[in-house]
Amino acid sequence: MNKKIIDLYNKSKKILTDKNATVVTHSIDFLNFPYSFHEYFIEGKKKILEKNLLEIIFFSVFSIIKNNVFWILIYLKHFLKKKEFETFKHKVVIISHFFNQNSNKFNGKKDWVFNGIFENLRKNLGAIKFILFNHSNLEEKKIISDALFLKKSLNFKYELKIFIFQIKETKNIFFNFFLQKKINFITFLQILSSIFTIETRLNLRLYIQFLEIHKKNNIKFLFFTYEGFSWEKLLIYASKEVNLHCKLIAYQFSYIPKNSFWIRSKNKKYCPDYIFTCGNFNKKKILKLNSFYKKKIFNVGSNKYFNVVKKFQKKLNCLIIPKGTLLESKAMLMLSINLAKLYPSINFIVRSHPLINLLKIYKNNFQRNFDRNRNLTISKKSLNKDIMIANLAIYRGSALILSAIINKVIPIYYKYLDNKNNIDPISDTKINKFILEDENNFKKILDKLQYFDQKKIIRNKEIALNFFSKFEKKNLLNFYKIISFQH
Predict the structure, then answer these.
(1) pLDDT 10s digit of each residue in the chain, 487 long?
(2) How far apart are the C-alpha atoms of 259 and 242, rounded to whole Å?
(3) 335 in a domain, yes or no?
(4) Where does a domain end: 211, 244, 260?
(5) What CATH number does residue 225 fall under?
(6) Domain identity same for 199 and 183
(7) Angle at CA of residue 273, ends 270 and 278, nearest 5°
(8) How far apart are the two ends of the chain, measured CA to CA in Å?
(9) Residue 324 lies in a domain
(10) Number of domains the chain contains
(11) Which of 164, 326, 410, 458 is most buried, taking the most CB atoms under 10 A from its CB?
């Protein structure tokens, strides 16, 4: 592990838990570690940490100019438009995500995260309004939906307000952290450069939208995805700043990586009122890390739990499942190409994450290689159909491996480029798996498959079922009873 990243991680914990940390401090991209040490989330941090004093001074000035002055001039025509925030009558709101794979038609039943509990929530709490992040390449007006989409740019008044936030935060970091000797001058400059990055600015745009949505609407129940991202804290803070009567329910729908300090927070300003989990394993893990959520946490299950009837296959079928980052997707594609060349008797099936257009990456970088390997495909089928025929699955940071294990697929963790960052979702379990360092040691794994008997496969499934359990109506009912009593 990069020592500078570890040092930053420890500094970030101290800064974000300091009494002088503001909501804008929590919006600074450089200080947040969602999914801990995954390459995608530390790549930008590495670039800042590797700069010397002169480079970081130049980079800080450049960030301020590029991401504010130039950006405002380029998009001035958008800023001048009057963009009002929508009002609605709904008392129940779900904040979720829209991807290309959702198709143009959206409703709660087809939602990527909440579709399993949507009907139950609607039946017990009333009509639901969806507020969506648009991760697709489609314009909102072309998506058939009555959802509200979060904006990627605001009018001039709000953009100016963000700039003022950034200036005030610069003063806060300088006077309350640097001058108080909590950080050194280099760290101050590194944070300064990130205060003015586009990532931090995007976070602050979301914060303003969350504030305005609450000011214009009387929301009683707000459900949202919970993975440790900065915007989640800003959402909670904005809600508690404007609407104290709103109940905040965070749905932890994936795995919790090691070293996730965000889940340890007991600062009520940034903590949800309740947490829904996708399984009992994470429920116990959260309670172990943070007793604050005792009697406030409910395992409601996950739509990632499903059973398929396995089809007998003469050939081995190996599923390759990258996480939704460009870096990991390219690495896994390259691995699949090399494996397909070396093992023509095995079918390799690469699945695309909803955030990534894998076909586009393949056409731009790997098409010639793919065309030469008939035993290699980018899947266009449903996940159920891919898992139905899979015997093996190669993964890195994707929690999808748990759905595969539930359906008796043998897991293989890909540890590449002498990478010491352990981003394995099942690393803190007793699930049996293989470790793949490069395509050359895949042969050793194949030789050992005969020792991976049904007992190990069944044991793996039993453990994985604690991660992603089937939907628990009983636990949802307990939740409704508690909130009914409080009202």
Answers:
(1) 578 888 999 999 999 999 999 999 999 999 998 865 667 678 889 889 998 888 888 888 877 777 666 666 656 666 666 566 889 999 999 999 998 665 666 777 778 899 889 999 999 999 999 999 998 888 887 887 889 999 988 887 888 899 899 999 999 999 999 999 999 999 999 999 899 988 999 999 999 999 999 999 999 999 999 999 999 999 999 999 999 999 999 999 988 887 787 888 889 999 999 999 999 999 999 999 999 999 999 999 998 888 888 877 788 999 999 987 878 888 898 899 999 999 999 999 999 877 777 777 766 666 666 566 789 998 989 889 999 999 999 999 899 999 999 999 999 999 875 455 678 899 889 999 999 998 989 999 999 998 999 999 999 999 999 999 999 899 999 999 999 866 5
(2) 32
(3) yes
(4) 211
(5) 3.40.50
(6) yes
(7) 100
(8) 49
(9) yes
(10) 3
(11) 410
Query: Of the candidates 206, 264, 197, which has an alpha carbon nearest to the alpha carbon of residue 230?
Result: 206
Please give the backbone phi and psi of residue 377, each rounded to the nearest 5 degrees, phi first: -140, 150
Identify whether residues 18 and 131 lie together within a single domain.
no
Beta bridge partners of 393: 319, 411
Cα–Cα distance for residue pair 108/405, rounded to 1 Å: 27
Residue type, 206: L
CA angle 291, 296, 298 (to 5 degrees): 110
* 134 in the same domain as 163: no
**Residues across the chain:** 487
Going by their DSSP bridges, the two strands 274-277 and 347-350 should be labelled as: unpaired
What residue numbers bound the domain in which 33 lies? Answer: 1-81+151-211
Instruction: Write the burial class of residue 32 (CB in 10 Å: 0-12 exposed, 13-18 middle, 19+ buried).
Output: buried
Token match 């602050």: residue? 204
Among 211, 237, 253, give the residue marking a domain's end: 211
Query: Is the same domain home to 135 and 52?
Result: no
Q: Answer yes or no: do 123 and 179 share one domain.
A: no
**Please, are residues 226 and 275 in contact by the beta-carbon 8 Å criterion?**
yes
Evaluate whether residue 100 is within a structural domain.
yes
Phi-psi region of 201 (alpha: psi -120 to 50; beta: other; left: phi over 0): alpha
- Would you say residue 311 lies in a domain? no
pTM of the model: 0.91
89/75 same-domain check: no
For residues 142 and 171, state if they share a domain: no
Residue 477 three-state SS: helix
Can you tell me the distance from the alpha carbon of 95 to that of 213, in angstroms, rounded to the nearest whole number? 12
